Amino acid sequence: GPRLQSACAQSSKLAQQYYLVYQVPIPTAHLVQRVASSGGVRSFGVSLLVCGWNEGRPYLFQSDPSGAYLAWKATAMGKNYVNGKISLEKK
């Protein structure tokens, strides 16, 4: 929906600004921290899964509307997230 699109647009803008200043892609953890702490997801009332690739390895973060964020190796969210997490734990 529109809230998710706004949160994604803000994340994209932050990543572009970082690249213009430092000439390297923004580290995934830094992007998630900036969006979560600036009220980015809080003001939109959405949870986000953000994945990226830094220093030769994948990263996955989940942020929630409170501004909290966690790093995961794998996770699930949404309507059927409990079954998704159970399935991931079995693997």
UniProtKB/TrEMBL annotation:
Domain of life: Eukaryota
GO BP annotations listed: proteolysis involved in protein catabolic process
Leader sequence residues: none
One GO cellular component, as annotated: proteasome core complex
Keywords: Proteasome
Protein name as catalogued: Proteasome 20S subunit alpha 2
Species this chain originates from: Rhinopithecus bieti (Black snub-nosed monkey)
Lineage per the UniProt record: Eukaryota, Metazoa, Chordata, Craniata, Vertebrata
